[in-house]
Design goal:
The chain has 16 helices and eight strands. It has 333 residues and is of the alpha/beta class. An eight-stranded mixed beta sheet has the order 3-2-1-4-5-6-7-8, with helices on both faces. Strand 7, helix 7 and strand 8 form a beta-alpha-beta unit. It is globular. The structure holds NADPH dihydro-nicotinamide-adenine-dinucleotide phosphate (NDP) and 1,3-dihydroxyacetonephosphate. 1,3-dihydroxyacetonephosphate binds next to helix 8, helix 11 and helix 12. It comes from Streptomyces sodiiphilus. Pathway: Membrane lipid metabolism; glycerophospholipid metabolism.
């Protein structure tokens, strides 16, 4: 039986732990709060993040990072992106030397503009061939109710990607392999920023043409950044690109989309943060994605607009006017 440690017992860490357990793995699920770990072990549910969902028997919760790490063939990381460095610094010495580190996170680190796999390599001292990412249209609540979804497992070493694919393939979860780690991570991080933009537009009742235009131009700027960073263009037409973008921008289950909708309806940033109880990665990562765009000299007008609305107090109507009056240009180029 494959032993897997999952660090982070929020919505996605728990739902993916369910996938792994359903696929036959023995999973230890780490979380920082003892009352939640105890509730998971005693009730067989995660009342804080997936209330009412019965967890499979193969999951055991703990608050002890060493217990989670013991003999783990795979180490799955699912905490908010901006907390990864600090957390992994504590966990890294506990991890087995050969464990494969898997990122579920869809963010870019503020300040360094590093992707999560880069932070993992740096902090855990892991070679690239031992670091993988999972990304795709995977709204946690749908997966936890075992509704069908596909996803991408990416690793520079294809044999490692295949090993990961094997341990999380179930009747309702279909992972594809890819070796384009950069593209998969960027697809996941930037779609959260575009979902904020679409949410704002939905909150302003701008209509379906506006939504489709934002999704399409959002994919164009994601691809532009990806190509500048060495990613494969095909990745952005795939599950970790278009797939995740469409799911996140159209679902009321998306925290980023919901966050944007609240802003578009006229809530202030403070009010929106106050009603958001889960991680909406795009709120911070829009700043680091824009940082990446500048470092690579890539134009990302939608990301820039989101940063303006969310962090610089620009009114959505003013931002819309600015976006629509940008100089006319060719669609491709
Ligand atoms: N939810 C989804 O549908 C999907 C999410 N993702 C990505 O997965 C990642 C995790 O998100 P998700 O599980 O949804 O987030 P949630 O908000 O549901 O859960 C966050 C988890 O991280 C923990 N946490 C928060 N802050 C810290 C900290 N400083 N140190 C340690 N643990 C902390 C929380 O613990 P506590 O309860 O104690 O605060 C909780 O267990 C994100 O990058 C997200 O983009 C990817 C695909 C799907
Ligand atoms: O990444 C996700 C779906 O693939 C979840 O999106 P949110 O973080 O916006 O809820």
């Amino acid at each position: 039986m494959t032993r897997v440690a999952v660090y982070g017992n929020g919505s996605w860490g728990t739902a993916y732990a369910m996938v792994l357990a359903d696929a036959g793995c023995e999973v230890t699920l780490w979380g920082r709060r003892s009352e939640l770990a105890e509730a998971i072990n005693t009730t067989g549910t995660n009342p804080d993040y997936l209330p009412g969902v019965r967890l499979p028997a193969g999951i055991r919760a703990t608050t002890d990072p060493a217990e989670a790490a013991r003999d783990a063939e795979f180490t799955v990381l699912s905490v908010p992106s901006q907390t990864l460095r600090e957390n992994l610094t504590r966990w890294a010495p506990l991890l087995p030397g050969s464990t494969v580190l898997v990122s579920l996170m869809k963010g870019v680190e503020l300040g360094t503009a590093k992707r999560m796999s880069e932070v993992i390599e740096e902090v855990a001292g892991a070679e690239r061939e031992r670091v993988a990412v999972l990304s795709g249209p995977n709204l946690a609540k749908e997966i936890a109710s075992r509704r069908p979804a596909a996803s991408v497992v990416a690793c520079r070493d294809e044999t490692v990607a295949r090993r990961l694919q094997k341990i999380c393939h179930t009747a309702y979860f279909r992972p594809y392999t890819n070796t384009d780690v950069v593209g998969c991570e960027l697809g996941g991080a930037v779609k959260n920023v575009i979902a904020l933009a679409v949410g704002i537009a939905d909150g302003m009742r701008l209509g379906d043409n506006a939504k489709a235009s934002l999704i399409t131009r959002g994919l164009a700027e994601t691809t532009r950044l990806g190509l500048a960073m060495g990613a494969d263009a095909h990745t952005f037409a795939g599950l970790a690109g278009m797939g995740d973008l469409v799911a996140t921008c159209s679902s009321p289950l998306s925290r980023n989309h919901t966050f944007g909708t609240n802003l578009g309806r006229g809530m202030t940033l403070e009010e929106t943060i106050a009603v958001t109880d889960q991680t909406a990665e795009g709120v911070k990562s829009c700043v680091s994605v824009l940082d990446l765009a500048r470092r690579h000299d890539v134009e990302m007008p939608l990301t820039e607009t989101v940063v303006g609305i969310v962090h610089r107090g620009i009114h959505p109507l003013v931002a819309l006017k600015e976006l629509m009056s940008r100089s006319a240009k060719a669609e491709h180029g």
